[in-house]
Amino acid sequence: MALSDSEVDLAAIAAQGxxxxxxDQLLRYSRGGIGAGITVVVAGTVISxxxxxxxxxxxxxDRVLDEGLERAGTxxxxxxxxxxxxxxLREKASMASAAKESMEHELEIHNKLEALSEDAEIPSDLHxxxxxxxxxxxxxxxxxxxxxSPNLVGGHMQIEMVRVLTRNVGAWWLGTTVPTGQA
Length: 183
Fold this sequence. Notes:
CATH topology: SH3 type barrels
Number of helices: 6
Largest sheet: 5 strands, antiparallel
Strand order of the largest sheet: 4-3-2-1-5
Number of strands: 5
CATH class: Mainly Beta
Number of domains: 1
Strand content: 15-25%
Distance between the termini: 57 Å
Helix content: 40-55%
Order of helices and strands: HHEEHHHHEEE
Structural class: alpha+beta
């Protein structure tokens, strides 16, 4: 059963809820490897860094998890057990692999839609996937980020990666911001 026109319209309206078209496009470009430096304001905190695709964050996540497991194994004196756990996690729960698979799935849906003729009816399962894909990105990653907040000692800190929920962005601009004297 195909989605009716009104169901597709409602899904599109829900997906577009509160998003900034330009930011959405910038984030979609980053999925293709075209990143840019941006600065965002989230609840009075300024965050600045380079937008990177999800697999880059996945690799970072996997590396930090590996390092944590290694430290835990060393301090527990049971490096063999932790190495086994690490191997299992890499095989079954790799964040980088999950992100790559998600992006490959999106490309597959795009290719299926492109292959249809203009007057062809879209199968309902493909229609649902296309509507989901049309939704804006819910989060994005900034690499080599600076976080500026009056609540931080010294007013700022630098972190390797930070995830930002798109719905929490109150303002944004192209270009990065760095602490005075560090440009």
